[in-house]
Specification:
Layout: H1 4-33, E1 36-42, H2 47-62, E2 67-73, E3 76-79, E4 85-88, H3 93-108, H4 113-120, H5 130-135, H6 140-150, H7 153-168, E5 173-174, E6 176-179, E7 182-183, H8 190-203, H9 210-220, E8 231-232, E9 253-259, H10 271-277, E10 281-287, H11 291-299, E11 304-305, E12 307-311, H12 320-326, E13 328-331, E14 334-337, E15 348-349, E16 358-363, H13 368-383, E17 392-397, E18 400-403, E19 431-434, H14 439-454, H15 457-467, H16 475-480, H17 485-492, H18 494-509, E20 517-520, E21 524-528, H19 534-539, H20 543-553
Parallel strand pairs: 1-2, 9-10, 16-17
Antiparallel strand pairs: 1-6, 3-4, 5-8, 6-7, 9-12, 11-15, 12-14, 13-14, 16-20, 18-19, 20-21
Length: about 550
């Protein structure tokens, strides 16, 4: 029960607390005044953004006590039919995933997130991000929390809040840098950024640390250019004579997007990015099954969808030349967006015949990311077996082939550099299989293909559950599998290699360089493993699948 005595003691405690706060405020104000704020806006898969991070982050780390550093991502979001946010980024779903992962690292491991980003930037397109986390000295528990965050509602909520800062500033170019809220337009190397931070500290009357003296020598060995390079829109420039130059009026032109509208998985992912990059453009979507859609596909020789067609007036855009280098190419009297890891992945393979309710899974047998995908998929298939009776599955491995020439003589060496000719290129048909993790992964790929080819799928699942416990130990395969003659012949003779060569051909046709991914119904994708809700996709229970099924029954979609 509350009494007056309790209230009196509460007031005394509150007064003491206020007095303590009053004593602390001057010190806190002084500390805040001696700090400089640096805001960096990036896209995690933009090569210029990565280059900027590799300069800015070491500069910030060298002045950690003097810099208030904020990292913001550039993206957009809409609300889906289920009420959940749906995110978009210039470089597609893989960039959204990495953006969210880095936001989770910032929130959960603030003392190590910069180390994670610097490590991740060494191989940012590799699907296995945990290698970078371990290299940054994140513990297993921290990595697990980071993964849970990135795949759950907390990561989505934090990321949604993060991208609001770029939207509020109308920032759409990666990288964009502000120091004390003013655009920074010098080189984004460690030395030049450190010098700019030190200038801001000096202007605030703060004592300069040793890193400021070292920065002068560092900057002297760095290029002072590169601040105008970026992905997306125009880079903010410094005010001239106290006035910000007026931005040129956006160019009005048409963007036509051809998409297979009967496939609800296949919504174009760059519509928001196009609106940001080209605010004057009028964007319209055309159904691939329509007469116009078929004519556009034929005119531009499209083999995949979506097809983004920009009319020639895009040439008047200020950032057109930069985008032409990496994203656009000429086709007839228009420009198309080049698909690929830095732009977008196609989601409809026009030349492939549709196989209803079939799933192709592409893996790398010694990759931790593939092992996790296998574990998630197997658990789902077993637990939901009753709803998946009509589902068929094929397993493939992401490998490539390189020609081997055993007949050509070694080139002669001499005292000067020789002149090579194209006649030295291999002319035979023999090929070598190449995988990300070398011959050990090739052997494991073959082993798993042979088990899948000759045994019930449950045998493969049992083997994977055992093998994936220790991917780094080649002997684990022998402990998990004692092949009978038929299986042994497949693994050790030509059948296994021939199966893997078929996978190499398929990976080449689909332009796959990453795993785990899947292709749905031999036509839709490839999708990164967690890019879409594959569980409901396989169940066939989502409204989109039901709609697609109706279209199929009507003779569409295949």
């Amino acid at each position: 029960m509350m009494t007056w005595a309790n209230v009196s003691r509460g007031r005394t405690g509150l007064a003491a607390l206020l007095a303590l706060l009053a004593a602390l405020l001057p010190a806190q104000a002084e500390a805040a005044a001696s700090k400089v704020k640096l805001d960096l806006h990036v896209m995690s898969l933009c090569p210029y953004g990565l280059k900027a991070e590799n300069g800015v982050l070491p500069a910030v780390k060298s002045l950690a006590k003097q810099v208030d550093f904020n990292l913001y991502f550039i993206g957009s979001s809409t609300t889906g039919a289920d009420g959940m946010p749906q995110f978009r980024a210039l470089h597609g779903a893989p960039e959204v995933a990495e953006n969210i992962r880095q936001v989770c690292a910032m929130k959960l491991s603030p003392d190590k997130f910069m180390d994670y980003i610097l490590e991740r930037n060494k191989a940012v397109h590799a699907p296995e991000w945990k290698d970078a986390a371990r290299a940054a000295k994140l513990s297993a528990a921290q990595i697990a929390k980071m993964e849970e965050c990135a795949n759950g509602p907390q990561g989505a909520a934090w990321y949604s809040k993060n991208i609001e800062s770029s939207q509020a500033r109308n920032v759409n170019a990666s990288p964009t840098v502000f120091i004390n809220d003013a655009p920074y337009t010098r080189a984004r190397t460690q030395g030049w950024v450190t010098l700019a931070l030190c200038d801001a500290l000096k202007a605030a009357g703060a004592a300069l640390p040793a890193a400021c003296k070292e920065a002068t020598a560092l900057a002297a060995n760095e290029k002072a250019t590169g601040a105008d390079e970026g992905c997306g829109g125009a880079i903010p420039s410094a005010p001239s004579g106290g006035q910000q130059a007026a931005a040129p009026a956006p160019t009005a032109f048409d963007i036509t997007v051809v998409a297979e509208q009967s496939c609800k998985l296949c919504a174009p992912t760059l519509l928001n990015s196009m609106a940001v990059l080209h605010p004057g453009a009028k964007v319209r979507t055309v159904d691939a099954d329509s007469k116009e859609g078929q004519e556009l596909i034929k005119t531009h020789g499209a083999k995949t969808l979506p097809l983004y067609i920009l009319d020639s007036k895009v040439e008047r855009e200020a950032n057109f030349q930069r985008l032409l280098q990496s994203a656009y190419y000429k086709s007839r009297d228009s420009y198309l967006i080049r698909h690929g890891a830095n732009n977008f992945f196609p989601n409809v393979q026009l030349a492939r015949k549709r196989m209803p309710r079939h799933l192709d899974v592409f893996l790398e047998s010694l990759s931790l990311a593939s092992a996790q995908a296998e574990q998630d998929l197997i658990r789902f298939l077993i637990e939901d077996e009753k709803n998946l009776k009509d589902l068929t599955i094929s397993f493939h491995f992401v490998v490539s082939e390189s020609a081997v020439d055993k007949t050509a003589a070694a080139p002669k060496s001499g005292s000067s550099v020789r002149a090579a000719t194209l006649a030295e290129l291999p002319r035979g048909t023999e090929t070598a299989l190449v995988s990300s993790r070398g011959d050990a992964e090739i052997r494991e790929d073959i082993r798993q293909l042979c088990v899948f080819q000759h045994k019930p799928i449950g045998t493969l699942f049992t083997y994977l559950a055992c093998r994936n416990r220790n991917l780094g130990d080649a002997q684990q395969a022998q402990r998990c599998l004692q092949p009978a003659d038929e299986l042994k012949n497949c693994i050790e003779k030509t059948e296994g290699k021939n199966l893997l060569r078929q996978d190499a051909k398929l990976a080449h046709e689909l332009e796959l360089s990453r795993a785990p991914v899947f292709l749905w119904e031999n036509r839709y994708g490839p999708f990164s493993f967690n890019e879409v809700d594959w569980r409901n996709l396989l169940r066939g229970s989502t409204p989109s699948q039901q709609a697609e099924g109706k279209n199929s029954a009507a003779g569409k979609g295949g």
